[in-house]
Amino acid sequence: MPAFLRPPLPSTSIAWGVLLLVVSTVALAQGKGIYTCIDSKGRRITSDRPITECLDREQHELTGSGTVKRVVPPSYTAEERARIDAQKKAEEALQARIAEEKRRDRALLIRYPNKPVHDKERADALAQIDEVISAVNKRAQTLLDQRKDISAELEFYQNDVSKAPLWLRRKLEDNEQQVAVQQRFVVEQTQEKQRLNARFDEELVKLRQLWTTR
To answer: Nearest 5 degrees, angle CA 42-CA 46-CA 52?
Structure first.
């Protein structure tokens, strides 16, 4: 189309083109980049160096032909950067926790596809503890029988341990220590059963949700 038939360009476009041309010429002459941005007031600013008015927002570095060479991210103060980094780390930690929780849920669902499987593992785990407690109780009965024998021997010394010979006193002391150990072990195993039941109860609450949503 002949130039005299072309519609005139809007004044703003002409101004922007002229400004970009001038800055490009200067920047190329000095071997510098061309920076442009829109500041907080909505004004487009172009310069041959990073623009101070746009440090809080993205700036575009242009080539001599006006194409974007790179995007310069906002610049922040040390305090602002620390706050942004802390927020980013907190978000990453949250996403990591969510991903880990999903991974645990998948593993839990694979391990316990239904309630009977979960119930059976609970019963098996409790049965193992009961077997241990039963063995401890048998050992406790053996120690009780030993104590009866020791008491019978102490009758020769009017049940006065101080008058008993050293070997008998050591036998009595050893018996008492072993009884105490067995009693503590039974208490620990009983507490372990409580912890085990609490764990299975907690899992069951979670599993009921997973079973209904899969």
So the answer is: 75
- Per the document, the length of the chain is 214
Q: Is 156 left (phi over 0), alpha (psi -120 to 50) or beta?
A: alpha
12 or 83: whose pLDDT is higher? 83
Segment (H or E) for 38: strand 34-38
Distance CA 41, CA 45 (A): 11
pLDDT digits (tens, 9 = 90+) for 39-90: 888 999 999 888 888 888 889 999 877 888 999 888 877 688 788 889 989 9
Q: In what order do the strands lie in the sheet with 44-47?
A: 44-47, 34-38, 59-62, 68-72
133 half-sphere exposure, CB direction, 13 A CA radius: 14
152-189 tens-digit pLDDT: 999 988 889 898 999 999 999 999 999 999 999 999 99
C-alpha–C-alpha distance, residues 214 and 212, integer Å: 6
Q: pTM score > 0.90 for this model?
A: no
Beta-carbon contacts of residue 50 (< 8 Å; ≥ 6 apart): 35, 59, 72, 75
The pLDDT of residue 150 is 92
CA–CA dist 125, 180 (Å, integer):
26
Rounded Cα gap, residues 17 and 6, in angstroms: 17
